[in-house]
Structure prediction request, 329 residues.
Amino acid sequence: MTTTTYAIDEAFRRAVVRAMLAPSVHNTQPWRFVLRSGVLDVFADRGRQLAVLEPTGRQLQLSVGCAIFNARVSLAASGASPAVRLLPDPAQPSLLASIDLGDGAVDRELAALDPVIGLRQTNRRRFASGEVPPEVVRTLVAAAEREGAILLPVVLEDDRVALARLVQRADSLEISDPAYRAELRAWTTTDPDRRDGVRALVVPHVDGTAGDEVPIRDFDSQGQGALPPQTRSGREQCLLLLGTNTDRPEAWLRAGEALERVWLEVTRAGYVASLFSQPVEVAVIRAQLRTELRLSMHPHMVIRVGRAPVTPASRRRRVADVLDDRTVG
Prediction:
């Protein structure tokens, strides 16, 4: 193995570690990686798909898209120019991306996001009062656009009211389903040694005093949520809708890449974010969302941005559990 080949493989291994820090629905971490000489293949781990919540696999692919973006950032920070092919082999539907190295110049804007990958977090706390400055919102809108997605600030009061109502309705429909509740319980945990799922340490305790207009998903399945119960997630806060022009699996991956780029920019600017996917998960509510907010795009995520104290970090699986490294041995 030449020194150059070794350095490339090391850059890809580092990229896997950074990719593993990506957000994922219910912290399922639904990805697998195969490292061949000079190529990193990214697979969906279908065994971690939430069959009740999202039988289409939309949120799984958004999650993997976030991981792909982190890998791109890491490779750029290593001085490489990653080239990504999405859904490269129709005969392997679980192969969502192949990443190799191109000949272009290093994307310095991409590389500059690497230091905040480990700082990004889902923050379900009560956000401080105060607006997110327009220049920050413009940066976030531009970040989504760079990844081929659309980020729409929800600014009109009627739209904010409609959005809050639709999130409430979707959340109510989901929580009334026993199968949904069982799946949620399976992916929440108080086990300090568990490396996936949503930990009680990172969710608000639910006691009926949350005061949410835009409801945060109730992950407190065992009544041991460690964060304060009064979250006050409101329609007056900075609310953004992420979407794409098409509604196909490749668009879902690109939306995931855009989501992570936006989230890293949020983090770099000193803000935090939480996500609301409930109105996208319920088909009838998703249709109403497009109609009532007059959307030409297909929505994939609602993002709330603000300031709040940090929360404990979510745990991650071991590299050996997700990486098949075929460059060694």
The mean pLDDT is 96. The longest strand covers residues 298-306. The two ends are 12 Å apart (CA to CA).
